[in-house]
Every structure is written in C-alpha cells, then in structure tokens.
Amino acid sequence: MLQLTLLGRVPAETTPVRGYPFRVGRAPGDQLRLQAPGVWDSHCTFEWRGTDGIHLVGNPQALTALNGQPVKQARIRNGDLLEIGGARLLVSVAPAAQRSFRLLEILIWLGLAGTGLAQLFLMLWGLP
C-alpha cells in the first residue's frame, strides 16, 4: 500500500492511499485535502495502471512537481518527493502489517495435546 507523508509539520502527517483513483487537493471530494497555498481543487490524482504501476496525473492548470521537475503525468516510485503548491509530500510504500495467528496457534497446540492424550488413553485401555 502506498502512503503520503506531508512534510514540514511536526510530527509529519501520514495518509495511506487505500484505493484508486486517489485525489489530492482542496475539493471536499478529494481523499487527501491540503490547505497549503497554491493547492487547487483536485490538484492531482494517483491512478493504478495494472502492470505499469501507479501514475500521478496532474490537473493541467495546476503546477505539480515530482522530484523537483514539473510534471503533468509520471510513474510514481518509492521515495519520490511530490510538490503540490506549497505542500511537500513524500511518497513511500507503507509497512506491511502482519496478521496475528496467536488464536490459530493455540488451537493447533490444543489439538495436538488432545490427540496425544487420546492416544495415551487408547494405549492404556487396550492393555490387559
């Protein structure tokens, strides 16, 4: 999952990108709303393009810079620095969250212990 970290604030604010298209700007419908100077309504959009990865598509009238270069459309990579008006965003891959298997592990150990006890009972019950 992609995440956007708004730089220049202490602490930095991080927003996960949970679905595509993901719009950034001032508009009420944008998934990430920025109030920095120079940010337009729906300033830019992140789009998923399958095997070609994630692309940034800027509003044609708004200035969007990726790694210091003005862009209208570009492929996004981990560590890219995005400048939208007066806002600076670091694009990064969110850390993967591992599911907890504690309950499953407990159930498996209980099952193994129960099987062992059942075998012991059958061995003792079958002896003369």
Report on the structure:
This protein has 128 residues and is an alpha+beta fold. The chain folds into 2 domains: 2-93, Tumour Suppressor Smad4; 98-128. The protein has 1 helix and 11 strands; from the N terminus they run βββββββββββα. It has one helix at 102-126; strands at 2-7, 13-17, 22-25, 32-33, 44-48, 54-58, 64-66, 69-70, 73-75, 81-84, 87-93. The strands form 2 sheets. Strands 2-1-11-10-7-8 form a 6-stranded antiparallel sheet, with no helix packed on it. A hairpin with a 5-residue loop joins strand 1 and strand 2 (13-17). The termini are far apart.
Number of strands: 11
**CA radius of gyration:** 26 Å
Return the domain count. 2
Question: How would you classify the quaternary structure?
Answer: single chain
Largest sheet: 6 strands, antiparallel
What labels would you give this structure?
128 residues, alpha+beta, Tumour Suppressor Smad4, 2 domains, 6-stranded antiparallel sheet, 5-stranded mixed sheet, 36% strand
TL;DR?
This protein is α+β, with helices and mostly antiparallel strands and about 130 residues long. About 20% of the residues lie in helices and about 35% in strands.
